[in-house]
Write a structure and sequence with these properties.
The strands form four sheets. This protein has an eight-stranded mixed sheet. The protein is of the alpha+beta class. The longest helix has 23 residues. The protein is elongated, with a radius of gyration of 31 Å. It is 26% helix and 28% strand.
């Protein structure tokens, strides 16, 4: 048989409760595990049960619990042996489950129904969950009985509890998928960073550098959260990351999606539990490190131009761990030495740099570094090869000019494509040509694949071939201008690099509305 219980945490308003269905032959010890899961307790403290009503009658309370180590305060019944159906005999029979004898979290357990098991339903099951329970060791915060602030609605909370209960009979710490990286160490470091709350002091445009002692790669780090929108740490990797950070900070008319497509970074953000993907939650549970509360759950994401934000790989996790673990030392030096963080466009930045001691150990140093540490030539723009035949270029260069002004652009669209299960989704590119005077779309083509420059050149030639004329002016963005540079010479008088493409902005705005 299946018992349906309503379990309510005593003394809170609005009430905090769970409706649970469990096997009637479950032991009180296993029921303890169900209750710990349902209320998100961490099983750090002692607990016990007191039966107060059995067989439909009020009784003198007696204890069901674990045997004391020294057998001084042993319960009347051992919970490892006692079965629910031996004590809950009729509907409305009840008990009180107490967890943590310091905080005294008392839960009233009432047998609501006795049911037949349903085919295809797994037990234990949470039918409904109302409001999150307080955090561990937080009784002092809730002496007035007011329930904690809600971060999840009833449906999400019920779903998460059932996801946990699915693993009820599985080992507590399942084998990790990638045992060669210390994921618990990363999660622990993330939790410690959150406790520092550096966003109370540092701005998102305060940049500091970590030098990877293995690859000598430069990591450009930015603390997020001063604006109370996203809390966390962004780490931009190497030259590509630095250039993407420059573009983001010099943003003009780009949307949030377009900015994300320029990033080469890994991001640690602290979110609510209902914002986590299943993979995030499984990683946390496998590590066995507890997280509770609003904006407390770590989420790790990889940002790569052309691709959907994805779970970080092992190398990205290693770099992120390096940045997180070095941050507390840097943060302490900033406060004690009164170092002043600098913006990306400044001449010097605060950095953590490694040095080898005489015995081969790594010694870290916090100090100001100048742009010389980059050792990059940022003045040269990327040179793209010619992806189309010179014969095609010669053919279209012979077309006559018309009097039109056309805007031409090639950009990713927010429609991720995943070709194979498990592969990282990518964003296809859309090439568009718009008559600037009328706003009419003259050409558009969606392209798959990741070589944007090749796609842009091919689409440009196709547009002109369809038209059989060359516009007097062809306005393009800086990025597209660079992609088309190898075929620029025949069209030098027509191709114009423009800061703003007004017709294209309107087109993208309409496209975003259609995708919502």
């Amino acid at each position: 048989m299946i018992y349906q219980f309503k379990v309510q945490l005593i003394g809170f308003r609005p009430p905090i409760w769970r409706r649970l269905q469990v096997d009637a032959d479950m032991t009180f010890s296993d029921f303890h595990r169900v209750l710990q899961t349902a209320f998100d307790w961490e099983d750090y403290h002692l607990h016990t049960y007191r039966m107060t009503r059995s067989g439909g009658k009020k009784i003198e309370p007696f204890e069901i619990g674990t045997v004391d180590e020294y057998d001084l305060f042993s319960p009347l019944y051992k919970e490892e042996e006692a079965v629910l159906s031996d004590f809950f005999l009729k509907e409305k029979d009840r008990a009180v489950y107490t967890y943590d004898f310091g905080d005294d979290w008392n839960h009233e357990i009432v047998l609501e129904k006795v049911l037949a098991p349903e085919n295809g339903v797994s037990y234990p099951l949470c039918v409904k969950a109302m409001r999150e329970a307080p955090e561990e060791d937080s009784r002092g915060m809730y002496l007035d009985g007011v329930s904690p602030e809600e971060t999840m609605n009833t449906a999400d909370l019920t779903r998460y509890i059932n996801e946990e209960l699915e693993h009820f009979l599985e080992p507590e710490f399942p084998e990790q998928k990638e045992p060669d990286f210390d994921w618990p160490r990363l999660l622990k470091a993330a939790k410690e960073l959150n406790q520092l709350a550096p966003w109370n002091i540092l701005e998102s445009d305060d940049i500091y550098i970590i030098v990877d002692p293995i690859t000598e790669e430069r990591l450009f780090c930015s603390v997020l959260g001063k604006a109370s929108e996203v809390y966390g740490l962004a780490v931009y990797i190497g030259k590509e990351g630095f250039e993407s950070l420059l573009q983001i900070m010099n943003r003009k008319t780009e949307s949030e999606f377009e900015l994300s497509q320029k990033q080469r970074a890994v991001l640690l953000s602290f979110v609510n539990r209902d914002e986590l993907e299943k993979e995030d939650y499984e990683l946390i549970k496998a590590a066995g490190i507890p997280f509770r509360g609003k904006n407390q759950w770590p989420e790790f994401r990889s940002y790569l131009p052309g691709y959907y934000p994805w779970m970080i790989d092992r190398e990205e996790a290693r770099l992120l761990l390096l940045a997180i673990e070095q941050f507390p030392y840097l943060f302490q030096d900033i406060k004690e030495k009164k170092l002043i963080p600098s913006g990306l466009l400044e001449e010097e930045w605060i950095a953590r740099t490694p040095q080898l001691s005489t015995n081969g150990d790594i010694i870290w140093k916090t100090d100001y570094v100048t742009s010389a540490i980059l050792n990059w030539d940022l003045t040269n723009k990327e040179e793209y090869p010619l992806y189309i035949s010179e014969l095609d270029v010669k053919r279209i260069s012979k077309y006559k000019k018309d009097k039109s002004v056309v805007e031409f652009d090639c950009f990713p669209v927010n429609m991720p494509v995943q070709e194979k299960a498990g592969d990282r989704p990518y964003f296809p590119n859309l090439t568009v040509a718009i008559d600037q005077e009328s706003g009419m779309v003259l050409f558009q083509e969606m392209q798959s694949g990741q070589n944007s420059a090749e796609q842009c050149q091919l689409a440009f030639v196709k547009f002109l071939q369809n038209r059989h004329t060359i516009p007097t002016e062809i306005w393009v963005s800086e990025t597209v201008y660079e992609m088309l540079f190898p075929i620029k010479i025949p069209f030098a008088s027509s191709l114009i690099e423009a800061e703003v493409l007004p017709g294209m902005l309107e087109f993208k705005h309409l496209l975003e509305q259609m995708q919502m």
